[in-house]
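Give me C-alpha cells for this 204-residue protein.
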Amino acid sequence: RPQPHGNGARALTLAMNLTSDDPATRGRVVAVRRNGRGDLYHLARLVLNKGDREMRNKLAVAGALVVTAATCLGIGIAQGASSPANSGAVHHAAHQPAFTVFKGSAATLFAVVNFDGSLARGYGTLSSKHEGVGSYQVLFKRGLRKCAYVATLGTAGSTGVPPTGYAGVVGRNGHVNGVYVQTFDQSGSLKDEGFHLVVSCPPL
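Here you go.
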C-alpha cells in the first residue's frame, strides 16, 4: 500500500494536529495516513454539520490538507473504496494519461481552384465551377458532412504575388459531397479569386 511521504506526510501530520479535539475526523485522517484510503466526503459533511465556527474552519483546513495528501499518494478524490468500478489496486495519477490517445487516421482532401472556377489540381476532387462573382462550388468523391473545411486565397502557380482578402466556406446545399466557397477582397466585397481548399475527414 502506498505510504505518505514528503508533502503528503507533512499535510497529514498537520491535519491530525488540527483535528486533535475531534475524534471522528481524526480517525478518518489516521485511516488515510495508514493505507492511503479514507472517505474524504465524510470530512466535507462534518464541516457542514459543525455549528462551531472555529471547528468548522479547522475541519475545512484539515479536509483540504487530506485532499492534498491524497493527491500526493496518487489517489483521485472520486475514487471510492466501495465502488465496484474502482475496487482493486490503487491507481497512480502519474501513470495515467491526461487524455485518451486518438488512434484514428484522418482523410485529407484538397482542391486548388483558379479564379474562373477551373480546377488546377486536387486530391479526391470531382469537379469545381464558378457560380457567380466570388462564388464557387467544389465537389469531392466522398461525403463531407462530418468533415472540416478550410480555404485561403491563393494562386495555383509558384510565381507572382498572392491575392489579398479572405475566403469563407460552408457545406454545399443539396450536395453531401460538396463545399461552397466565397472569396472576398480586403473591403469585404465579393471578388473572383483563386483559392486553396483543404478538407479533413474522419475515416469512412
